[in-house]
Structure formats: structure tokens, C-alpha cells
Design brief:
The protein is 32% helix and 20% strand. It is α+β, with helices and mostly antiparallel strands and 313 residues long. The strands form two sheets. Strands 1-9-10-11-7-8-2 form a seven-stranded antiparallel beta sheet. A four-stranded antiparallel beta sheet has the order 3-4-5-6.
Length: 313
């Protein structure tokens, strides 16, 4: 799990930016193994719900940001990604996409019929084929943050965490975070934050929640309204998962923008809380959440049982 548990899980719990400087040379992208869980879920979403996944404000030019991202991918992972400014090659997937949207199957892929990735990419409009290849090559979802007006004008988000990308694209940072409980600090810092992450330094932050949803893709229109309805396990806690996000920012200096990367992971809670110290740390965070935060994070129905389970560990 590419997630710093001790940094992210703290008490008292606060909705805050929580940025820290990225260590020099730390990777910001994680390549996906062909046929991996992330790749299969992303492929299913792109094949069915691309209009809620690949999104841009009318007239927005994502070219400079995509060029920076492709260069970053080549720098970090030259064995699986190549970019010459005109075409991108995902070498492990055997697929090349040109800047004009052309798609070339260079060799058979490593799973299924061997052409699943290229067929999924060809379903997209030409302008979205390079972002689609990036989405299927790396674990991260992507968005562009524009410091000039504190908006998010472009998104390629296949694995949202209970939010709808189509409702957020093009909106101001404060509007995007309007539903966040106890989120005044985050909202008020929006314009300063967008300027900070679009500067010369690189930043990361971590987000987490305990959830009843094992899927990576939890768009709110495809998750049942009733939550925490599973049969309880023997220890008295419903089936629970630890959902995390590692978020980083890749500056786009020529445009006062940054590429926002979101790496989602979901693991069984009992596998993550594998020491008494972690159980105590997570219990302290949950115990300190306000009623509004518990409701926002859908933890109110399970709070007491979750705390009993953590205390027992």
C-alpha cells in the first residue's frame, strides 16, 4: 500500500490540506501490471461511462499538462512508457497512441485476447485517447488544477471515491469541496493551495476512510443508498475495507497549473490494522470525529461497533 499510515491517521481528526513536500526522486506514478485489478476496473469504466470519466471545460487545452505528465512518466518508468512529443508507447501493453489520436497495436497484450486495451482506447474520442492510455498504464487518476482561477478544468477520473467527476469539472476549488463536513479550513485555503501546488516544489497528501465498499470505482450513482447492510462477521464488525488515496502534484510551470494524481487503494481493514499500535491510532482518529464528519464519511451506522473492534485489537 503506497500510503503513509502514521502520517495520515491522526487524532484529533481534522479536515485539512495536510500537504507535505515530496521527497526528492520519489515517484508520482505507479505502473499497472497487465490485467491488474486497477486496470480491469478502469477499462470497464472507460468502456461504459467515459462521459462521466474523461471530462474538460469547453475550450480548455490540456496539451501542455499532458506533455509534462508524459515526460514525467518516461523519466520515472522508461521500461513501460515512452514519449517523443508526438506519440506515447505503453511498452508493457503493446499499444501506441499518436498526438492525432491514432492507435496502434504493436504486439499482443499479456492478458485476454491481447487487444483489450487498444479496443478500449479506440472507443474514446481522439482527443481523449492519450489520457485513456495513461489511465490504463498507471494506477493514478488525473486532474488539472489551474492556479489562475483556482478551478479544476480537466479530469480523467475512473475510480472516484463517492463523488461524481461530471459534477465537479470546471468548478472553483471551494465549490468542489462545498459538501465536505467541517471543511472550512480546506475551502478557505483553496486559492493559496492551487498557487502552492502549481509552483516549483512537489507535494503529496494522504486521504483515508473505512468503508463497506470493496470496489475501487464508487461513483455515487452506482453505489446503493443503503450502507453497512452486510452480515456481520464473527467479531461483530460488518465487512469493512480501508480505502486510501495518495495524492501528488506535478507542476506545469508554463501554464501556472499542476497535474493532480490520485492513487486509490482498497484493502480489507483487518489486513491493514495488523498491530495494536495501528488499532489504537485508528480508534483515536474515529473517536475524535464530529457527528458531521461521521455522517459525511458514512461511518455513523458503524462507529460504535468499529471502535469496539479496534479497542479489542
Amino acid at each position: 500500500m503506497n500510503f503513509d499510515f502514521d502520517t495520515a491517521v491522526t487524532a484529533p481528526f481534522r479536515m485539512q490540506p495536510g500537504l507535505r513536500r515530496l521527497a526528492p526522486g520519489a515517484p508520482q506514478l505507479r505502473p499497472l501490471a497487465p490485467g491488474s485489478r486497477h486496470q480491469r476496473e478502469k477499462m470497464a469504466v472507460l468502456s461504459t461511462f467515459a462521459d462521466q470519466t474523461l471530462l474538460a471545460r469547453p475550450g480548455f487545452d490540456a496539451g501542455p499538462a499532458l506533455d509534462v505528465l508524459c515526460r514525467q512518466a518516461t523519466l520515472e518508468h522508461p521500461s513501460c512508457w515512452a514519449w517523443d512529443g508526438r506519440s506515447a508507447t505503453a511498452t508493457q501493453l503493446g499499444v501506441r497512441v499518436g498526438s492525432d489520436g491514432s492507435v496502434e497495436q504493436m504486439r499482443a497484450g499479456a492478458f485476454g485476447l491481447g487487444n483489450e486495451v487498444s479496443r478500449c482506447i479506440e472507443l474514446q474520442a481522439p482527443v481523449w485517447r492519450l489520457p485513456a492510455l495513461l489511465a490504463l498504464t498507471f494506477a493514478e487518476d488525473l486532474a488539472v488544477v489551474d492556479a489562475s482561477d483556482a478551478t479544476v478544468p480537466w479530469m480523467a477520473v475512473a475510480l472516484p471515491s463517492h463523488w461524481a467527476p461530471e459534477d465537479k469539472v470546471g468548478r472553483h476549488f471551494a465549490q468542489i469541496h462545498a459538501p465536505v463536513a467541517d471543511g472550512d479550513l480546506l475551502r478557505h485555503a483553496g486559492e493559496a493551495l492551487t498557487r502552492l501546488v502549481s509552483g516549483d516544489e512537489r507535494w503529496e497528501r494522504f486521504v483515508w476512510n473505512v468503508t463497506d465498499q470493496p470496489r475501487l470505482h464508487v461513483h455515487p450513482r452506482r453505489v446503493g443508498a443503503e450502507r453497512w447492510t452486510h452480515e456481520p462477521q464473527a467479531q461483530g464488525l460488518p465487512r469493512a475495507w480501508f480505502r486510501t488515496e495518495r495524492q501528488t502534484f506535478i507542476p506545469v510551470p508554463s501554464r501556472a497549473q499542476s497535474l493532480f494524481t490520485i492513487e486509490v487503494e482498497v484493502q480489507p481493514l483487518h489486513e491493514v490494522v495488523d498491530t495494536p499500535a495501528r488499532a489504537q491510532r485508528l480508534a483515536g482518529a474515529v473517536r475524535s470525529m464530529s457527528p458531521a464528519v461521521l455522517d459525511y464519511r458514512n461511518l455513523t451506522p458503524v462507529r460504535d461497533r468499529l471502535l469496539q473492534w479496534l479497542d479489542a485489537r
